[in-house]
## 1
Amino acid sequence: MQIPYAEWNAAIPVRRSRRSYDSSEIVPQLLSRMQTVCQDFRPFPEVRIELITESIDAVLTGITNSYGIIRGASACLVFIGDMNDPHVQEKVGYTGEGIILEATANGLNTCWVSGSFDRKAASSIIGIAKNEKVLTVSPIGHSPQEPSLTEKSMMSLFRPHKRRPLSALASGLEESQRPAWMKAELDAARLAPSAMNRQPWRFELDRNSITVSVDTPKLSLSIDKRLHCGIAMMHIEVAALNCEVEGKWQLLESPQVARFTVKDE
């Protein structure tokens, strides 16, 4: 499946993490569309995304080692990876964010969830192989236009960090030297979701490449930071394609994650 970059790029600035849903069912045509995209968008054979519509409450159990009570979702995305792959975290983040952007482009709400779900319940529902693990999930459905009181109180209680400026995230090429496509990629990457909005990625810029690294090797609220970097990787590639610039990813060893190199103009 080719990335529908125009639709996904438009979804990047409007995507918001939502934890309250109105319990309305997703129309069959849209549900079928999401199931098809989950099946067809598999850039890495070690990663798969499953959409479930049953026993949602059993999976989204509330607070367990992280913040965010999820209520009323009519479906759930389950992100699974082969743990024998040393790059499984970034591959799950990259692939999963593609599905998240597809949902957003179709008017659905989502939220990356790491600790506040029942991994055993999710694994039982979808069935996983010996080496597979459910790394994270996302409710999917329709949220009220205004955040619920619960959402507002959780945001106030945990006070997510404000997004850092690009000057704190990117190094290498000075801003005046960056081509338009690189500026678009960085702007999109800066909008990538991360736990508590900590933005645990860093970008090293060269004339025709962006290298994504983690800020430190420590976990961020029980989530591997390489998974967050995978989310940012998807934003980078979508923005590049939207600028009619093609490139390739090279996966790297820690603390680096991956390098996106564009073709010479």
## 2
Amino acid sequence: MSGAFLVLVNVAVAAVVGGVTNHIAIKMLFHPRRKWRWGGWNVPFTPGLIPKRKNEIAVSLGHVVAGYLVTPDGIRELLDRADYRRAAADRIAAWIEAEAARAAAAGEASGGGAAGEAGSGEGPARPEAMLEQLIRRWAGDEAWAGWKAKLPDRAGSWAAETVLRLWKERDWGSRPLKEWIPGWEETALRRWPRLAAKWGLSTLREYAASAEGQQTLRRLASGLMDRAGGWMGFLAGVFVDEDKLVQRLTPFIVRQLGSDSVRDAAAGWLAGRLDELGGWTTEEAVRRLAGGRDPELWLAELIRSRAPWARWIDSAAQFPISRWLDEHRPRWREWVDRGVDAALTGISVHADKLIAAVRLPDLVRTQVERFPVERLEQVILSVSGREFRSITWLGVILGGLIGLVQSVVLLIWR
């Protein structure tokens, strides 16, 4: 056998052995999936490394992720970045607008949506999305129908229970009425009665000068003469003309109702009544309105049964959400920004508690244990397939070099 042929054979054999060895080693990371048995003996190196050590790998990966990758400091650094917060707010705002547009399109397609107002007369009218359509899109028609039927009673009961709970916890019954009304001060007590007196007296002046007011004054004059009785009543009936009496009294009444003295007297009387009313406790005011009934029970019944919850809910369901979003974009966008900032700040402050609460190592371990080995092999090969092929070819090259060195040594030795 010639030397060149010997070198060629040794290099080829060693290269094949090196490549096949590395290829088998890579395959043995994932194969075989299960343990092989030959008779009563376990076949060595079965199952493969990753299937055999999957649980240990899951535990280690959970500690690595929780200890080095997803840490409270890393989460805080990410959440405190202004660009991240801005991007999160942009995504939420875009999602809100997209959901409103989809709800409007779905309502228009089903014939239940209201068309929006046309713009400048160019193009078709824009579909209008109501709050009801948005809820039906998220929850479904059946769920919305059930909610709509139960919501009035539940809203009334919840509102009544909340008011009664706060009534007891915060002792609302002992609070004076003037504490509930903003601006209940001495200056307000002087201003409000004068405004009320001015408005009331002006209304009475207009009524007295109207045809209906004239008829009322005639009835009053007739009633006064009928009640006079005796000789004075007889003389009044003979000599006094009701129409002339009303014609003479009307200018006097109108003039008096517009005078400063009457206005000051009415304002003073109203100020006294308001001052007295402001000193009432809330329980006393509710008791007077309840007509002797238990104030808490009367208030609960008023909130639960008398308030038009069904009508309010119907009105809220027809709220034009898409139009409101268009017309008040700066306002609701500011709300979204504030909400995102508050939420991310809360998560950032309590990041360590949140990670501890979700038990991140256990979560990662459980997910890795549930992950199929076949799928894990596909993921690893999709990421590192080129490197694995490089390792195989590296085995070929190293094997070839070893075969070359071995051939040279044999030729020298010979």
